[in-house]
Amino acid sequence: MKNIGILVFNNIELLDFAGPYEVFSVTDELNDYKLCRTFTVEENGKIIKTVNGLQVVPDYSFTDCPEIDVLVIPGGVGTKEIIMKDNILKWVLQTSEKSEITFSVCSGSRILGKTGLLDNIEYITHHEVIDDMRKIAPEGVLQTGKRYTDSGKILTSAGISAGIDLSLYIIEKMYGRDIMEKTKTYMEYGDWRR
Prior knowledge:
Blueprint: E1 2-7, H1 14-30, E2 36-41, E3 48-49, E4 55-56, E5 70-73, H2 79-82, H3 86-98, E6 101-104, H4 109-115, E7 122-123, H5 130-136, E8 141-142, E9 148-150, E10 154-157, H6 162-175, H7 177-187
Parallel strand pairs: 1-2, 1-5, 5-6, 6-10, 7-8
Antiparallel strand pairs: 3-4, 9-10
Helix pairs in contact: 1-6, 1-7, 3-4, 6-7
């Protein structure tokens, strides 16, 4: 069973983390709860508020969080504050070193960029964050016009809803096309077929 850990923080974009959460949780549910356990992590385990004010109670803090196989770094305007917090960047870097996959959604690329994890690899971000990312990760290879990128262990998605696309891609990568299609059909997402 894979542990899917999603970093949450104040002023996070709701769909940036809820989309991947849904994809991984539905995949697990449809497969008798044997594939992946999805949970949220906040630095101190405190309640956070999304960009639009929804309150979220995280499952874990940095100190009591289980090992993470897939680390999800969502975006939102809160990333501007997060990249100024060395302890969070350090946790992301240390967790990414142990994870099988680390991926950002939307402006979560700011966090990966600030840690150096985007250096010398292709990445994508939200179209309104491109100029910012050229300053944060000048060594990264910025792509445009894609929904997501796969550089092996580090993957990135474009803005907001693209996080669902990347999550489905990761499900296919980890568990195969049939399981991904089963999830996609249940969610009635994209070009699902009945």
